[in-house]
Amino acid sequence: MGHVGNVPRGTITELDDFGLIMLTGKQVRVRFARDRVVPQYLDAGDVEWLHVADELLAVFRSSLGSSRGQLEAEIDDLFGDLPQPLIHNGLAKLLEDRCEFETQSALPPDQVRDAVFLAAAHKRQALLETVGQSLSRDDIVQQVASELQATPADVEASLFADLKSEQRLTQFKDTTPQRLLQRYNVALAQAILLRSTGVDIIIRGESPARYRQLLRQIKFHRLICAIERVSEPEASAKSLRKSRASASSSSYRVHLDGPLSLFSATQKYGLQLAVFLPTLLLCDDFELTAKLRWGAERKDKVFHLSSRDALVSHQAETGAYVPPEVPMFVELFRKKVSDWDLSEETEIIPLGPTFWVPDYQLVHRVTGQSVLLDILGFWRRSSVERHLQLLREHADRPFLVALSDQLNVDEADLEGLPDNVVRFRNMPAPDEVAKRATALVGG
Q: How far is CA 436 from each of CA 274, 395, 405, rounded to the nearest angstrom?
């Protein structure tokens, strides 16, 4: 939408790379299988639906400068005669939310209306005392134009220019037909989550960077969260195959309260939960189960979503990025250090009011003692200082922090962590990291 105010009841919204995305409750297509709610996803590779998406995109691309009303009329001409245009309306709505609409007028519309209505009222009063004359619209417009030192055409064009139907399309953020169909499928799942009382998610075998991304999003959206480690029998065959290819086989159950479980159910919380979904979709192996209250009678229902549904996230892939210096350190450590093993550490550790996912775990080959390792070279300084404070106050296991000199962290911020910090310029020194780890466990 061009100008965003309060979110209407019965919609889902989200800020992504393309702006505010919305899907009205009436556009949500589901079927029911006993107590399950099953979204009616579209096949993003279907030729017919790709053609429909392409037609809609062509309308929006050619409508720059047109009014919102003209755009809606063209879409109605294209699909209005269909017996069930629900999908087409939903696709069009998603595209409309990628648009910017603006009021365009030579004069302030509210000022023009006030002047016109006042002039008309005075003219009507005068006509009550005159026989044989009628109220002329053109005369009123001409009078107001003279008062505002404008042309009659400007008065006519500005009179109702701020109505929603008269706003002009000034920008459309383009996409592809396939991406539009993929976005539609995600929007269906998001709309269902708005009716949830609780959401349980099992996430398997992800990297530390991915778990950190998930936790950041949970915290950013202020979701009510509980996390516990999942035992190996619950791990899927896919995650077990993945674990053999890497050192990471950790699996976790994440419980998120739904908006309808709160004492005062708020739409804002539900929207935040829906916005979190695209981050989850970046995971390779997950299962989501949501308990719902569905419909006007709020009947108990269940919604299942997993990586097997192959929904495609529209969120930018940023959480799994690893700077090249980090794998270089890992490779050099394994070559030079003989008494410590180094592996990715994907354990999610409570850390006061938040959670911590260390980058690596050092395990002594003889004693089996372990030391957790974080490499802080690519964070914001304020985040590093906060992280160090949390470690100082709440960490209950041996840990090391490799800290880049580029962060310019003051020695005062390291008070209380004399043996836990290894400074580095370009890359942590493996020998120094191993030496500090040995000192921490008393080796």
A: 44, 17, 18
